[in-house]
Amino acid sequence: MTMKELAQMAGVSTAAVSRYLNGGSLSQEKRERIRAVIAQTGYQPDVVAQMLRTRSTDHVGLIVPKLDSDAVTRVTAGATAVLAKEGYLCLFADVHNDPDRELAYLTLFQKRMVAGIIMMATVMTPRHEELLRSASVPIVVTGQQFHQVPCIYHDDVGAATELTRLVLRKGRKKPAFIGVTEQDVAVGLNRRRGVQAAMQEFGMDPDTLPVEHSSFEISGGKAAMERLLAHHPDLDAVICATDRIAFGAMEVLRQEGRRIPEDVSIVGMDDNWACEHISPHLTTAHFYYKASGETAAQLLVEMMRNKNQPGPVHQTMLGYTIRERASV
Predict the structure, then answer these.
(1) How far is residue 323's CA from residue 305's CA, in Å, rounded to a whole number?
(2) Judging by DSSP bridges, how do beta strands 116-120 and 59-64 pair with one another?
(3) Is 280 left (phi over 0), alpha (psi -120 to 50) or beta?
(4) Burial class of residue 291 (count of CB atoms within 10 Å of its CB; 0-12, 13-18, 19+)
C-alpha cells in the first residue's frame, strides 16, 4: 500500500498522512482517521523513501574491530543502551582488524545517510584522516586519541606503567613485553611506552626491554611467548598488551615448565571476563569500556542534535583500575 492509497481510504490528503507519520501538526479528527486505517491495513511507511525525502534517519553506524572481543562487547553495550533510549537503531560493521574495511564502512555509512557514526578505531592512516576530516555526518572515535576528532580514549600509558611497577616491586629484574602493531597507537605504542617508563623509574635501561609483537588472538600470544623464550630464556616477567595475548603466553610458560608466579610474573590489560577463571587468576588493568561507549553515544547524540552548530572538539580520557590477582 502506498501513502496515496492510505490517504484515500482515510479521506485525507497525502500531506496529512505525511504530517501524521512525521509527527507534524494535524487535527485530532484526521489523526484518528489515519490511525484507524493504519491499524486496519498494517501499513508500514517506506523508510528508505522517507530518508531520501527528509535527508534524515534514526540509524547510527557502529564500526568495530572485531565483534568477538570482550572490550568491543562492553563498548557496544554502553553505546547501544544510550542510543536506544534516544530512539536510534544501530547498524554494526565488523571490520576484522582490517583498516581497508574500516575505510570502506566509513564511506558506506555516510552514503547510506546514517545520522552519525561511532568508530572503535585501531589505526590512523592519511586516508582515515581525510575521511574523518571531510565527514558529512558526526563521528565519535573510541579507544584512540585522534587530534581534531571527538574521541573517548583510555590512559593506556598510565595503566601499563602501573602494572609494570607492580611487577618490578615484586623483585623482577628481567621484564619483557608482548605488544601488537605500533600502528595501533593506544594498544601497541602507548602500552609499550608505559612499560618502559616504569623501567626507567626503577633505574633500568628502557631500551633493553625485549619486545615481541602478536596478533590480538590467543594463538598470537603463544607464538610471541615462544619467540621470547627462545631469545631471552632468563626472563622473569611478561607484560602483555591484552589479556588474550597473556592467556596464550601463560599456556606456553606452563608447557615449558615455568611456574606462574614463582618463576615468571605475568600481567595483561583489559580485564577480560576469563581473567578470574584461569589458573592462576590474571592480574590486569580494568578499562572502563562500557562507560566509553556510553560517553561516546551521549556525545554523538549531542552532535547529531546540533549538526549545523559546530562546537568544541571533545576529547575525553577515561581512567583505569588495577586488578591485582595471583599471576604476580
Answers:
(1) 39
(2) parallel
(3) beta
(4) middle
Q: Cα 114 to chain center, whole Å? A: 19
Rounded Cα distance, 55 and 39, in Å: 27
Cβ-count burial of 12 within 10 angstroms (0-12 exposed, 13-18 middle, 19+ buried)?
Answer: buried
State how far the Cα of 296 lies from the Cα of 117, in Å rounded to an integer. Answer: 10
Take residue 26 and report the three cell numbers written for it.
494535524
Tell me the chain's radius of gyration from C-alpha atoms.
Answer: 25
Annotate 132-162 with DSSP letters as a single string: HHT-SS-EEEESS--TTS-EEEE-HHHHHHH
If you ran DSSP here, which 8-state letter would residue 274 be given?
A: G
Give 63's Cβ-side CA count (13 Å radius).
29
End-to-end CA distance of the chain: 67
- Triad 269, 273, 276: Cα angle to 5°: 90
Dihedrals φ, ψ of 83, to 5°? -65, -35
CA distance 188 to 178: 9
Whether a cis peptide bond, with omega within 30° of 0, leads into 261 is yes
With 80 as the cut, is the pLDDT of residue 22 above it? no
DSSP letter at 189? I
Give the cell for residue 320: 583505569
Give the type of residue at 147: H
Tens-place pLDDT, residues 223-263: 999 999 999 999 999 999 999 999 999 999 999 999 999 99
- The whole-model pTM stands at 0.81
**Cβ distance 268 to 195 under 8 Å?**
no
pLDDT at position 23:
66
Q: Which three cell numbers stand for residue 232?
A: 631471552
The pLDDT of residue 136: 87
Name every residue whose Cβ is closer than 8 Å to that of residue 221 and which is 6 or more positions away in sequence.
Answer: 178, 214, 240, 244, 245, 246, 247, 248, 249, 252
Of the candidates 300, 298, 299, the one whose C-alpha atom is nearest the C-alpha of residue 115 is 300
